[in-house]
Write a structure and sequence with these properties.
The protein has about 100 residues and is an alpha+beta fold. It is built from 3 helices and 3 strands. It has helices at about 15-30, 40-50, 60-80, and strands at about 35-40, 90-95, 95-100.
Length: about 100
């Protein structure tokens, strides 16, 4: 049996920006089921693209980053009652870290 290696080109910045949007769509859909809107600032999108990329693994770390940095804090806001139906989750960057707040 002959195996051929497949080479992929390295991801470029525009690729990561598009992948961030695609990956955020899953979270947006889950929150929409609870009538909650997700707002992510351009600065937060840039930070997601930067931290969600790995030279060896490409964009694979991005999904875990979105879960850990945005989805988990949003779930805590729901559990605490700070985020309710028809609410908004705002994601921004403060001091180089993600800031997730109910709005």
């Amino acid at each position: 049996m002959l195996f051929r290696s497949v080479r992929f080109r390295p991801l470029e910045r525009g690729d990561m920006d598009a992948i961030v949007d695609i990956q955020l769509q899953g979270l947006i859909a889950r929150l929409a089921e609870r009538r909650i809107t997700l707002g992510v600032t351009p600065a937060a999108r840039v930070l997601l693209a930067d931290r969600g990329h790995d030279a060896e693994f490409g964009a694979r770390p991005l999904k875990r980053l979105i879960q850990r940095a945005i989805a988990d804090p949003a779930a805590r806001l729901l559990l605490e009652g700070a985020l309710v139906e028809d609410g908004v989750v705002r994601v921004d960057v403060r001091d180089g870290q993600f800031a997730v707040e109910a709005g």
